Amino acid sequence: MSETHQSLVFSGMQPTGNLHLGNYLGAIRNWLKLQELHRCIYCVVDMHAITVEQDPKLLAQATREVAAAYIASGVDPARSIIFNQSQVSAHAELAWIFNCVARIGWLNRMTQFKEKSGKNREAMSVGLFTYPVLMAADILAYRATHVPVGEDQKQHVELARDIAQKFNNDFGVPNFFPVPEPIITGPATRVMSLRDGTAKMSKSDASDYSRINLTDDADSIVQKLRKAKTDTLPLPETEKDLEGRPEADNLISIFAAFGEQSKQSVIDQFRGAQFSTLKSALSDLIVAKLVPIADEMRRLLSDPAEIDRLLKKGADEARALAAPVLADVRRVVGFVG
Ligand code: AQP
Fewer CB within 10 A of the end CB, N or C, for the chain? Predict the structure, then answer.
C-alpha cells in the first residue's frame, strides 16, 4: 500500500458488447474481495468505448448491462461507487492535462493500440491512441492506489504509473499523485478464446463460440464448451506438460479459477482423462456460477430507471471525491480561477 495515500481501488470495464468469462475471472470476481477491505470505485467506462465506433442506442443499453453485471456479480452499490465515466467531467479534464504530461513515444509502445489498429493505424481515432492517458486520469482523479485488472491491461497501468511520477516530478510536488499498483491475481488472469488457445477471449471476437458470455444460458454454456478446441492427447500429468498445449492450459486454468483451487490440483483430478470428462465437469461449475448471475442481470435490467438512478447516485459520489483533486491539480498546473 502507498505510504502517503489512503488505499483506494479503481477499476472499470467498457460497455462494448457482451461481458464474458474473461472479464469476470480477470476483473469482476477480484473486485468482490477488494470491496470487503477497501474503498472501491467501479466505473463503466463509456468514454473509452467511443474510441471505436458505437451505435448510440446500443451504447446506452450496454452501459446499463455492464452496471447490472457488476451488481448481479456481487458489487454492492451501497458499499462501492458504481457509475458511468461520462457523468463525471473530471475524467476528461484530467485526461487533457495528462495528454500534456505523457510522451508520444510512451503511447507508441502500447501493444493494445497496435493490436486494435493493425494495419489501419492512420484511420484510427486519436482517442484510441490516447486511450491509456484517459485510463490514467480515471485512476488518478481519485488518487486511487490499486487497480485490479486482467493481464492485458498491465501495460496501461504501468503507463498510469509513469504519468503520475512525471507529473509529480515536473511540477515539483512529490507524492501529489500515488503511483498506482496493478492487482493481477488468480489462475485466470488471461482467459483465452475457446476457439484458439493463443488468442485472448474478447468481446469483439466475431465468433460467439470463442467466449462464454455472462448472459449465456446453461445450454449455450454446455454447447460452447463441448465445441471448444482441444488437442488430441489425454489430459496432462504435470503443470509442465501444459507447455505447448494452450487449449488444455486454458480449460484447466478456467476450472482452477471457478473451483478456487490450484492448477496442479485440477491436473491431479483429471490426469490421463479425455477432454470430454473435464469439459463436462467444467460446464457444471460454470453453469452453477454464471446462470444465477444472468438471472439477476435480467431482473435488474427489467427496471432501467432504477439502474440509471444508481448510476447517478454513484456519479454524484465520484464527482465529490474528484473535485478537490482537480482543484489541487489546477492550482499546481497554474490555471487561474
Ligand atoms: N480474456 C481476458 N482474461 C482476463 N481478463 C480479461 N479482461 C478482458 N479480457 C480478459 C479484463 O476485463 C477488464 C475489462 O476489460 P475492458 O472492457 O476494458 O476491455 P478489454 O480488456 O479490451 O476486453 P475485451 O473483451 O477484449 O474487449 P474488446 O474486445 O472490446 O477489446 C479489464 O480488467 C481486462 O483486463
Answer: C
